[in-house]
TrEMBL record, chain A:
GO terms for molecular function: CoA-transferase activity. It holds the Pfam family CoA_trans. PANTHER family: ACETATE COA-TRANSFERASE SUBUNIT ALPHA (PTHR13707:SF60), KETOACID-COENZYME A TRANSFERASE (PTHR13707). Keywords: Transferase. The keyword Transmembrane helix does not apply. This is CoA transferase subunit A. It comes from Marinomonas arctica. The keyword Transferase applies. InterPro entries: 3-oxoacid_CoA-transf_A (IPR012792), CoA_trans_fam_I (IPR004165), CoA_transf_BS (IPR004163), NagB/RpiA_transferase-like (IPR037171). The lineage of its organism: Bacteria, Pseudomonadati, Pseudomonadota, Gammaproteobacteria, Oceanospirillales. Belongs to the 3-oxoacid CoA-transferase subunit A family.
Automatic annotation (TrEMBL), chain B:
The keyword Transferase applies. This is CoA transferase subunit B. GO terms for molecular function: CoA-transferase activity. Pfam families: CoA_trans (PF01144). NCBIfam families: pcaJ_scoB_fam. SUPFAM superfamilies: NagB/RpiA/CoA transferase-like. The keyword Transferase applies. It comes from Marinomonas arctica. Keywords: Transferase. Belongs to the 3-oxoacid CoA-transferase subunit B family. InterPro entries: 3-oxoacid_CoA-transf_B, CoA_trans_fam_I, CoA_transf_AS, NagB/RpiA_transferase-like.
Length: 234, 221
């Protein structure tokens, strides 16, 4: 590696330093924009006792769901985990812990984590089970909850294109949580469909500036569709 | 006759205004998109990071990177924008969305809503619902008035864990249009052919019934 060149040669290199018990932030919404090859590499590597912060936990046999197969995940921090039978089983028999977090709070926890903001107040969750044990404060007559930021030992991110300096752009709604996770990893790894030369991407169109990114790896993607809906054609 | 799902969507659509940014939840709320009046521009917000959601794609245009908050493959309309989840919830929490429509298990006279968790049953998560109800000023809840066993879902106090506190003012059920004012449901309209007595019988929370309760009207599109 030289200077700002973030490109690594393999998925194995992309996850050097990932150890048992670490916290991983993962981009993606449902199966859209998930770092599917980095997840597969974590499975291959066999890292255990992980806390994974991700909006969802994949499905049986794809995405983060595959990390449940060998019980690699100890705890999930997610907003919605309903698409996964193995998840349900491990949750019910106590092998897996889950911290359900409102989706906007989850996004903001990552954003704040990456921006050096340790906690923030939000109206989301006031008066609900989410508020239990949390400090509250009234601003302008309304009650707000104090929510703490999240940072990860690793962030695993799926981009569309990156240049060698780690500037990343995302494709369509595959953006979702990816740019947030990217800011909040101590080591941020981005897998992309295409690596371009420095200068090819318009600086004004960069979603994730390279300063947040430590490693870039080139992959090929299945991009499985969770709910295939098409319009009726008459 | 109680309203069909389609009629409920039609009734909600009457609340749309030209230039509204609208977030539609899963289920009946999604159907509202089918009843946007032809002469009106409405932009649909999907909380996974899309403003300007279009119709479903064709087999030729389907794209795994283009989905809505229900994880369905969709398209964009002209003038759409795509952004991160934090930006999406900044819109929602910052009160920039003009109308939010979502389903619920229960609503009570204090505007509390329960929609995400039934204790001792599998808990899948709240998704974006807590953010939506906390952030929006203008919310319509759509649900059946009573359960299949006849238990009212319009209560003096929600029995299930809440999604949000004191945030609901408008409820459309299969029997009635109600608004929540000062600790009571106010019966504003009834479904065609449904009597006030039926609605009273199926409403557990305090209900104020004005002298005249008009039937809903539906204009054919």
């Amino acid at each position: 590696m030289a200077g700002f060149d973030k490109v690594v040669a393999s998925y194995e290199d992309a996850l050097i330093g990932l150890e048992d018990g670490m916290t991983i932030l993962a981009g993606g919404f449902g199966l859209c924009g998930i770092p599917e090859n980095l997840i597969a590499e974590i499975k291959r590597k066999g890292t255990k006792g992980l806390t994974v912060v991700s909006n969802n936990c994949g499905v049986d046999g794809f995405g983060l769901g595959i990390l449940l197969e060998d019980r690699q995940i100890r705890k999930m921090v997610s907003s919605y985990v309903g698409e996964n039978a193995l998840f349900e089983k491990q949750l019910l028999n106590g092998e897996l812990e889950v911290e359900l977090t409102p989706q906007g709070t989850l996004a903001e926890k990552m954003r704040a984590g990456g921006a050096g903001i340790p906690a923030f107040y939000t109206a989301t969750g006031v008066g609900t089970p989410v508020a239990e044990g949390k400090e509250t404060k009234v601003f302008n007559g309304r009650e707000y909850l104090l929510e703490e930021a999240i940072v990860g030992d690793f962030a695993i991110v799926k981009g569309w294109k990156a240049d060698r300096y780690g500037n990343v752009i995302y494709r369509h709604t595959a953006q979702n949580f990816n740019p947030l996770a990217a800011t909040a990893g101590k080591i941020t790894v981005v897998e992309v469909e295409e690596i371009v030369e420095v200068g090819e991407l318009d600086p004004a169109h960069i979603h994730t500036p390279g300063i947040y990114v430590d490693r870039v790896v080139l992959g090929t993607f299945e991009k499985r569709i969770e709910k295939r809906t098409v319009k009726a054609v008459y | 006759m109680s309203l069909t799902r389609e009629q409920m969507a039609q009734r909600v659509a009457q609340e749309l205004q030209d230039g509204f940014y609208v977030n539609l939840g899963i289920g009946i709320p999604t159907l509202v998109a089918n009843y946007v009046p032809k002469n009106m521009d409405v932009m649909l917000q999907s909380e996974n990071g899309l403003l300007g959601m279009g119709e479903f794609p064709t087999e030729e245009t389907i794209d795994a990177d283009m989905i809505n908050a229900g994880k369905q493959t969709v398209t964009t309309v002209k003038g759409a924008s795509i952004f991160s989840s934090a930006e999406s919830f900044a819109m929602i929490r910052g009160g920039h969305v003009d109308l939010t429509v979502l389903g619920a298990f229960e609503v009570d006279v204090n505007g509390n809503i329960a929609s995400w968790m039934i204790p001792n049953k599998l808990i899948k998560g709240m998704g974006g619902a807590m953010d939506l109800v906390a952030g929006a000023e203008n919310i319509i809840v759509t649900m059946t008035h009573a359960s299949k066993d006849g238990e009212s879902k319009l209560l003096s106090n929600c029995s299930l864990p809440l999604t949000g506190k004191g945030c609901i003012k408008k409820v459309l059920t299969d029997l009635a249009w109600l608004e929540i004012e000062e600790g009571a449901f106010v019966l504003k309209e009834r479904a065609p052919g449904v009597s006030v007595e039926d609605i009273i019988a199926k409403t557990q929370g305090k209900l104020i019934v004005p002298d005249h309760v008009p039937e809903m009207t539906f204009v054919s599109l």
